[in-house]
Amino acid sequence: MIKSNSNFSRLPERYLFLDIAKRVNAFSKANPSADIIRMGIGDVTRPLAPAVIKAMHEAVEDCAAQDTFHGYGPERGYQWLREAIVKGDYEPLGVNLSPDDIFVNDGAKSDTGNIGDILSTDGLVGITDPVYPVYVDTNLMRGAQVRFIPCNAANGYTGDIPTERLDVIYLCYPNNPTGAVITKAKLKEWVDYALSNGSIIMYDSAYEAFIRDPEIPHSIYEIEGAKECAIEFRSFSKTAGFTGIRCGYTVIPQGLMVNDESGRKVSLNALWERRQSCKFNGASYVSQRGALAVYTPEGRKQIHETIDYYLETARIIRDSMTEVGLNPQGGENAPYIWAETPQGIDSWEFFDILLEKAQVVVTPGSGFGPSGQGYFRITSFADRQRTIEAMQRIKNLMNK
Ligand code: MLT
User: Fold this and answer.
1) Are 78 and 288 within 8 A, CB to CB?
2) Is the omega angle on the peptide bond into residue 174 within 30 degrees of 0, that is, cis?
3) Ligand 1 atom nearest to 206, measured from its CA
4) What is the pLDDT of residue 13?
5) Residue identifier of the C-alpha nearest atom 1 of ligand 1
């Protein structure tokens, strides 16, 4: 009989957010009258910006007429969207990219999970810990060797530069789950490390739109030399509420090279085009038109206001966690707040206490990796009034 991929036995039984959903559903079934407030998965709750809605309506209308109908799109995404990305997201940072460095996708999760297809499984993959579980799980699935890079208060949740050689390094700033940000100086240390070791950095900046501090880098390409060692992932999910619409993009600079097995230089941009054109048929025309509207003046303004709303919610969460002595961090240039469990109790135990006694769902820190033990994450992608209610319930519980 055919055997399954044995790498799957290296994975936790369930994907973290599915595990949480199953536990919450079981609780809800057993307690049908419970008024559960969900602050676990970082799913947006605010409606799409009117400019995005208008553009998508128009795109649907295009598809209703013979002469404006759109079938398969270009494999890298429409040129007009890739040009808008380069002009709208990178030119203001002083970063010079070509539209051909950009690959439009159906959200950053797919590409952060699939990118390993174009790399050898030889060598070591370094992953900051705690971490968005997709990077770890997908590397285990493909049989790669993973090394955790512990992130904690002492290193500002940005990891210590390793003394061993890592071939691939995953970084995510503003960080999921800790809400930490990285300074240009620290990011430069990572870029310098990658350049001197011939490593590739996978830089997930899905949450860059939450940065309000002008000193914090939005893109790894703000650091000199990064185009020779880094791939960047961006998403319209958290920037513009596209978690259900699905659109994002990956930047692979055309000059980014690795060696093939015979030591010849190969372009990762070319390999990714080969991979995507074989396995992916592009984000829909409608979602790409919606994404284009993000770059219009009204789109920008509306999106900025929505993010301000989430940041204010984050402030309320942070203040509440401070009030009950759980030492929060993050939530200032990021949507996530990372807090300590009381008396350092186990993350899942505290998850259960909050669910059972306050009917509030958070994400247990240990679900993000070993360094998350004794912590939990709260998302600010929640309704304001429900957040205030959830914070009150946690305060009541902690003050008992
Ligand atoms: C999270 O809660 O960490 C994110 O929403 C998950 C994701 O973006 O896939």
Assistant:
1) yes
2) yes
3) 8
4) 85
5) 42
